[in-house]
Design brief:
Helices cover 14% and strands 28% of the residues. It is an alpha+beta fold. The strands form 3 sheets. The protein has a 6-stranded antiparallel barrel with strand order 1-2-10-9-6-11. The two termini are 36 Å apart. This is Translation protein.
């Protein structure tokens, strides 16, 4: 029977994550450099740090109920053997540096992959993957190559951005595509109820302005849904439950990363109060930095839920 666990009933999740992370890093199994002293601790997450994201599959939507009996619509995202395949560091022409972590997910047969990618995966020590993406990070957030990422990478209670291709709607008119009001559906209008109406001018300027909202293909574009709350994490099945809908069809690959605007807004608000370090949502003390791994999840319950806030589920004030 799966266990349910809330942040209010148990010791802070962050303290356990930090202890597990430090113990796993001290083992030196995937260290890039050996520690000089046993008391060395991993790099600490700061408000300016940017972690890598994850590649997941959208499994569909469902509903869950919190301890207050409030129904919460959630989207289920599942990780499929998401692993780190490379760390990227590039020096630009203006002498600034670009840092990124390359992540791959969803195993595939070796015979269906190209030889170039087979060599790349062999060098990283991972199985061939179907999708490879890179996430920009700060220099202190590189992850050892070959590390397997867990659903625990995102702490319940925090906010994430989900990026995916939206569902294609085909060629649509202006009312469906742009929300036009349409023409009058009563006297004086003949077979033009859903048309766009006038699109140009007479003599000046005598043309249609570029960017005019007109009928055309709708959907099938890269969409980012921002500030979705992480409601629940299942480390056994590598499931991430986020509140609300995310773009894409079921079983499509989506990219999950820490919410950018929410972090910026919280840091700006707390900086005015002199609390620049406290930029995480209420109930979340820290993040598993630089990444959450299955080794960290072994010492924690299978299911971890975010606490309920007031009458509005899982939406604490900024």
């Amino acid at each position: 029977m799966l266990r349910s666990w809330t942040l209010r009933q148990q010791p802070p999740l962050v303290a356990q994550l930090r202890w597990l992370h430090s113990s796993s890093r001290s083992s030196g199994a995937q260290e890039e450099s050996t520690s000089t002293t046993p008391s060395d601790e991993p790099s600490k997450w700061t408000p300016d740090s940017i972690r890598t994201g994850l590649i997941a599959r959208k499994r569909g939507m469902t509903s869950i109920w919190n301890d207050q009996g409030v129904r919460v619509p959630v989207t289920v995202l599942q990780l499929e053997n998401c692993q780190v395949t490379a760390n990227i560091r590039t020096v630009r022409r203006n002498h600034t540096e670009y840092h990124a972590v390359q992540v791959a997910a969803t195993d595939r047969p070796a015979k269906t992959a190209t030889r170039q990618m087979l060599g790349h995966f062999r060098k990283a020590g991972v199985a061939p993957k179907r999708i490879v993406k890179e996430f920009p990070v700060t220099p202190d957030a590189h992850v050892p190559v070959g590390t397997t990422l867990s659903a625990l990478h995102f702490v319940p209670g925090q906010y994430v951005d989900v990026v995916a291709n939206s569902i294609g709607k085909g060629f649509q008119g202006v009312m469906k595509r742009w929300g036009y009001h349409g023409l009058a559906a009563s006297h004086g209008v003949s077979v033009s109820h859903r048309s766009a109406g006038s699109t140009g001018q007479h003599q000046d300027p005598g043309r249609v302005w570029p960017g005019k909202k007109m009928a055309g293909r709708m959907g099938n574009k890269r969409i980012t849904t921002q500030n979705l709350a992480v409601v629940r994490v299942d480390t056994n099945l590598d499931l991430i439950f986020v509140r609300g809908p995310v773009p894409g069809v079921d079983d499509a690959h989506v990219l999950i990363r820490d919410a950018k605007k929410r972090m910026t807004a919280m840091s700006s608000a707390n900086q005015a109060k002199g609390l620049y370090e406290k930029v995480l949502p209420k109930g979340v003390d820290d993040l598993p930095f630089p990444a959450g791994t299955p080794e960290m999840a072994k010492g924690l319950p299978t299911i971890i839920e975010a606490p309920a806030y007031r009458k509005s589920p899982f939406i604490p004030p900024v």
